[in-house]
Write a structure and sequence with these properties.
homotrimer, alpha/beta, Immunoglobulin-like, eleven-stranded mixed sheet, nine-stranded parallel sheet, glycosidase (chains A, B, C)
């Protein structure tokens, strides 16, 4: 969805203010060049303080003031935090999870299949939408907030699950066989015998329940979206702020949501991206999470939340806030909305700081936001709606993520899948190789010169056949260990591994182990001779038609291969049978993947991003993610550096101060 | 409360003996110079083996034998461990806590608001008191044992909490605003909607519940004290054995009790002090915990429990038991009572060993107790009732402790407050700067030349104004990071930080972060130029009128200050915006605080403690807390070294063997 | 029990196969020289898919095919995993444990005292036995699988426990005294007041409950055994697969079963032995666990489960599978049965791989199994029924294991007892000193030249007196710290320590502590002068008549002894008062224990095992547990090396390639 201007602003909650200051806040926003606030989300107890008693005062104050200050408004439905009166009236709204019945307090603490919850949800949404439906500076609506199933295992949810299984498996014997339930006498001979899923030790069945829970999320978002559509105008968008697997920051693909499915009910995809900062700011999280968001609808996306001051360890160094904002836009985002405007004075996120500190005064973070906002007023029309055409597609798959959570690598536990995915995509990032993120059921594989497949543990026959075809037709495929090992229900294949892909890969293996502390790879390709430690997993690969590029050394497995490459019909495929150090991965990938000419010899901490803007012109961003000044030689047609409004010619030296950037728009 | 002689003895339980040997035990006690036993506490099931059936046989045997061996007796009420029959009769006596309903077994496992518990409590206390009320060698009574609320979250307790809130907040809107309950829709629009506190994620409300739980403890102790007072004589004291925040030993101020409030119902404060030993014995725990105990009533205190052999890792080296005993007395204690006389042969504390091992034979620990007891018979009258007049007061505050538990430092979790407090007081200890511990609502601030304020996260306006006044009137104030950040309900101030104190401190800040691994302070004062690593927290302080003494280096924050000093009206104040290494802290504090002349140049492991004894004479203790012999030069008037009965003159060299001490009484 | 041939094979489950392939599997087994399958165990839901509906199709298919392929069959009762319908019908079959009520899913998840469980158990066993009772190639029956009480704390179990206590303690006062229940008011004045054991904090009572739970296991196994005996023929055996304390592999004696008692209902003892592998394969686990199994009935035993590929980190290096198989046989095992034939395609143990990988193809592990099977066809008759006559007995005791779990060493927690046991037995193993494992109630102590007593924390007077007598009569005794400290109910002795044994040991102590980081032993004996770090525990031992061999140094405890030796009447005893490094232990033990002449100077990684075979000939195995080739000089009479069919004479040099072995049968 095309935007008219870059959205710049913050989440705003007049509800939590210690004193009335909406106009002061919006004055400061406007002065910073901000143009958007995101409101209402999570404030159900203010909107409906008692059962069926509604109060839109705070909302109206904010909306009216926004109009006075030329701020657009995004309205969120308030449904992800339930009021005390609702839980008192219907205690069964609190979910029963694997950890038992929850208590009231936390947000995201409800059974999204509960009919009482859904009844009250619908009522508050309809009353809210009805109240705001004709307000022109409301530009869009956000459904709920980072929706999950919150691990609901209520009897309602479990009954729905049995119905779901019955539909997929009319013959209960087929079900037992596919899920291997005879093992340890877990057989279910009658659907009435279905035991509480929370005690289940069968990973196939647990994975299916997680898939079912993801489907609940999709259904819930579609359901809200259908209600909202009854009220809104054509130019208003519907979005949702998807988040990511979390390890103190946004780390990888979200295990609990099938974002590709869920995004189909939205006009534009949104994302909440939080990342490490200070000396650890690399741009890799912004890129990886942003690439997922952009790929959900293969379009520009909104950054609905990102950090201003953020958590205690994230306070940005000088210039980092600006670098981050441009990083999002260069990646295809059309907005940077901070969570949140001011720092809250009580409760759980008091130390998740906003643009303003608790004292509401101008501070260094606010001052830097002013720089961003005012630059964008000047050059924003050159930056918005950036179109990318990447040569590399990385395949993402929720079922494989679950599979590697159920059967993890040696030390990575629930993060196993994303650790492999980030291992690969971080290397692409460092090498200045831009990439898209494809759903495993994407029909666009053949649009890419390179397809990268991280640990696709669970795969349908159809997908594996299409990957073979992709190579046969001239594609370049990179596949890691664990791929193709099990079917869509985590039933391990009883055929040769990697199942079906052994054809295009020209390899096979039937054993694997953990690398010992001294197991290494020895890599030999062209003039490159390197060794590197193995970790997490190693498959003992034999080459059938493939050429070995890396062998295991210093262990009992010296006869086996770790990295292989195979020419298959018109294409080429590479297999990585183990994980190893980043330096070697960078070498292996740069030996295998052709880089764009302007990136030749340039790699992290200097990152180049590019795309075509609304004027049809090629834009190249040069970012310096480091404390030290960097110089690079510009390779491209003549153009204009937009920030300094300065002409640039091919082979000019570009100087990038610490945590700074340049943006060059090629002349047509 | 003045004592007539130092109490020396142990807790004693004839109830747990494997065979009858009361007279043998008391013979050994008498031979060791012991004069006191503490009994009855925790033995409810012996005193009342069945409902309303009482049996005082064991008690009488001990009391009678004690009289024969000239031992005084302290009687504890037995109420902190409930009998099996009582829980069978009233299962609801077992508390519901944040971890759920408890099972019978552990001590301190009851709901102290439960009416059945209180009924039976009162009956057993009255029967016990009635039984012993006219026995002359009973010198005092101990209420319960290390009382807490045991995290009671029973419906009785929670109903009392709502009543307590209603009283404090007649207007529920004020309550919602002050606690920030609109956040995440936690608003409570009717008191009837109040949810189970155990799910609460609002730190202000959780902190208020903890404060309420501390109030339950105070009420419980007052209630028992009122009952006891009905029975006792004027010369008998009432005490309680307060304990401390525990990390395998007594570490810091007790989070679960407002000891200053609770001590008001007692004639003398008591304390249980356990500490690390062997190579790690420094005297710092005995001093810090003892200073709290002494300050509760600004008077001498009782050490009601301390270790003899103690836990497995605490077995004292030769001479350490004696050094420890004198350390308590030098600090203002009037007793050393071991927990416990003999080592128990079954159950939970079998390896928390007493003076005697399980074999009841004389051993090296017992032999050292004999040395102590017999020395005190000789010189005890010079040591007892030691009066101290310290120049330094350290402010202690339960609410701030809770605040830093809810919003902890980077790595210190629930210990955060006490880690800051001990960081400062350990430095004072090493520098031979004796100090008192003032409650944050103390009216004695102005009695001190120096006031030290560790991490006073939660503070009333009144307290902060009084600290400003203190400096204005000539005081020396030392304030650390986090101080004044929130009000008494942990609502973060929305004004300039440090709230109100920025006036006397001459500084301000609006941002903070965690120090990275290489962030350091560079300190410059007079001839001192030092650097030190920062840790846990750092505020980015700007000087308004203050002088910077320490700046941050090696990070993105080089423009900001870490240590500042400010002359404000007649006084001086210092701000420490981060934590750093002990060496630098010792330097900073010794640059700022004037030491008494006799301590000039003397520091740990040689520790000096002093006070005025019952003869009106100045006593100075010289302790050597190390394995190596130490020498120091005596600075003071002529006096008598009491242990060796030897004259000492100014500038004499004092020789302190490993783990030994000298006590010099100045001649009048 | 004598076997006719070595059993070689695997557990087999046609129930879990993804497609029908029984004949293909058995062809491959036969080709590998396998002769046995173990079936039916854990497949209740296949045998009885609905209440009282039985289906023996899968069973019959396997049994019939086995006959066609000349495979013997061992039938396991399926009772350790309950079907879904049974739990739906009787939810109270799921046990209540210390962690609460369990949910359906896991195996070994039932209350073995539950009458409904027992009813259905008996019915399925009888129907199964009835079905197979006249089949001649069924050679034996396995009762259940690694049976435990699964920590049942159901009301049925707890009521039985109270009955058990009443029987042992007709006088409740004696009970209270022996268990020390007056402490913390835990006294039980009426059996009706007995509280839920799950809250109990009295270690004596907790230990008694664990002993009671072990008795439940014994009763359950006897009960099943009696049922089975009604159906079987004389030549069929009854066994059970005992397992071991588990730390990712079989580590030590099983805390939850009294295996010596339980084994009395079996014709032959069985064991499940899993061990670390690859570079960490030492043979120590196979030896230690195998020695326990052999000692249970003082006879040959069955290895009913051991790893083929096993867990991911266990994949054997080339030749290791064969080395392992011979290691079991050399230790007195009469079988090597792999768990399991093929790798399962779903559920909990999908990565606990069998002989075959998931692809059912020949692989390196299968190929190595073929070598084993075909060698055994040739030379098996020389290997089977190996008889050992060891000089060293190590005493094992469940109560002491529990005691050290309740009162653990400094860092070893629940593993404390086995850590001490393995510390000693690993040293014996490294020194080529073969040993038996004696139950603490064994009457065979005097059959051994050396008795080794690891941490016998809980001991009856009778046992301690018999150890004194053993030394008096000329035995060599080695006793470690903690021994004799408490009685059979963990009541600590109130007499001199080590209780009673101080007589034969010639020492005493009354204090102990943890070693500090720098505490060491200095050992002096003959020409050996060594120092070593102490760890975990140290007793401060004084010699009465004993000679000190090791003293503590570098600590406050230099007056005390760590290793002592004492000549007492006709024998000699040694006391180890602390744990120390393996190198020193090897020295101390080899100074004290005479080694057999053929082992002189030979130690790990070369391990010698011996015994007398069915031909009455002495067999010596030489194992090389290392990656490097080893050579040793043969010491013995002329003989035949069986694997290479080669004559060997005294002083011949034996060459042992990496992970290889030789077997020399002396000529008569």
């Amino acid at each position: 969805m095309k935007m008219k201007h870059l959205l710049f602003g913050a989440a705003y909650y007049s509800e939590y203010l210690p004193y009335h200051r909406i106009d002061q806040d919006m004055d400061m926003m406007a002065q910073a060049g901000m143009n958007t606030i995101r409101i209402a989300e999570s404030t159900w107890s203010t909107l409906e303080p008692q059962d069926n008693i509604f109060n839109f005062n705070q909302l109206d104050l904010m909306i009216d003031a926004a109009q006075r200050h030329n701020l657009s408004v995004i309205i969120g439905t308030p449904t992800y935090a339930v009021p005390t009166w609702l839980v008192r009236k219907h205690p069964d709204i609190l979910p029963v999870t694997h950890d038992g019945q929850t208590l009231y307090g936390h947000r995201q603490n409800m059974d999204i299949t509960n009919p009482h919850y859904l009844f009250h949800c619908e009522r508050v949404i309809r009353r809210l939408l009805d109240h705001v439906k004709d307000i022109s500076h409301i530009i869009g609506f956000q459904i709920d907030n980072e929706t999950k199933s919150y691990d609901t295992c209520s009897s309602t949810a479990q009954q729905k699950f049995v119905v779901y299984l019955k539909q997929n498996f009319p013959d209960i014997n087929t079900f037992n066989l596919e899920f291997g339930l005879d093992y340890w006498s877990n057989r279910i001979n009658s659907w009435d015998d279905f035991p509480d899923i929370r005690g289940c030790i069968n990973q196939s069945l647990n994975a299916e329940y997680k898939k079912f829970q993801r489907q609940l999320v999709t259904e819930f978002l579609f359901w809200q979206s259908e209600i909202i559509k009854e009220y809104i105008h054509d130019e208003q968008f519907i979005t949702h702020n998807f988040d990511f697997q979390w390890i103190d920051y946004s780390f990888g693909y979200q295990p609990e949501v099938n974002q590709y499915d869920a995004a189909r009910c939205m006009s534009v995809a949104g994302a909440d991206i939080y990342h490490i900062s200070q000396d650890q700011l690399t741009g890799a999280e912004i890129t990886c999470c942003g690439n997922i968001a952009r790929s959900l609808k293969n379009d520009n996306y909104l950054v609905l939340e990102t950090q201003a001051q953020g958590n205690t360890g994230w306070l940005p160094y000088e210039k980092q806030l600006r670098l981050q904002a441009y990083s999002h836009i260069a990646n295809g985002a059309n907005s940077v909305l901070y969570w949140h405007w001011y720092s809250i004075h009580n409760s759980f996120e008091s130390y998740w700081k906003g643009v303003l500190s608790h004292d509401f005064k101008e501070n260094t973070t606010y001052n830097e936001a002013c720089v961003i906002g005012n630059e964008w007023k000047r050059i924003g029309s050159h930056l918005i709606n950036l179109q990318k055409k990447n040569q590399i597609g990385v395949i993402l798959d929720n079922n494989s993520l679950t599979g590697l959570s159920e059967f993890p690598l040696e030390t990575s536990g629930d993060l196993s899948y994303n650790i492999v995915m980030r291992w690969l995509t971080n290397s692409l990032f460092r090498l200045n190789l831009e990439y898209d993120m494809l759903s495993s059921d994407s029909c666009h594989i053949n649009d890419y010169a390179y397809i990268i497949v991280p640990a696709l543990y669970s795969a349908t026959e159809q997908l594996l056949l299409s990957l073979n075809d992709y190579v046969a037709n001239g594609g370049h495929l990179i596949v890691t260990f664990k791929t193709a090992f099990s079917d869509e229900h985590l039933k391990i294949r009883h055929e040769k591994q990697p199942y079906l892909l052994n054809e295009c890969l020209g390899i096979e293996y039937d054993q694997f182990t953990y690398p010992s502390a001294h197991t290494e790879i020895c890599y030999n390709y062209a003039s490159h001779h390197m060794t590197a430690k193995c970790r997490e997993w190693m498959e003992l690969v034999s080459c059938i038609t493939a050429t070995p590029l890396g062998r295991y050394i210093n262990s009992g497995w010296s006869g086996y291969n770790a990295i292989t490459v195979n020419h298959y019909k018109k294409g080429v495929s590479m297999y990585l049978a183990t994980m190893f150090d980043d330096d070697l991965l960078d070498t292996v990938l740069s030996d295998y993947i052709s880089v764009d000419s302007e990136c030749e010899g340039i790699h992290a901490p200097v990152i180049i991003k590019k795309g075509v803007n609304d004027y049809g012109q090629l834009l190249r961003y040069y970012f310096n993610y480091s404390n030290a000044c960097q110089t690079v030689i510009y390779s491209g047609h003549k153009g204009l550096e937009l920030l300094h409004n300065k002409n640039i010619a091919n082979e000019d030296i570009l100087t990038l101060p610490a945590w700074d950037l340049l943006i060059i728009e090629e002349y047509l």
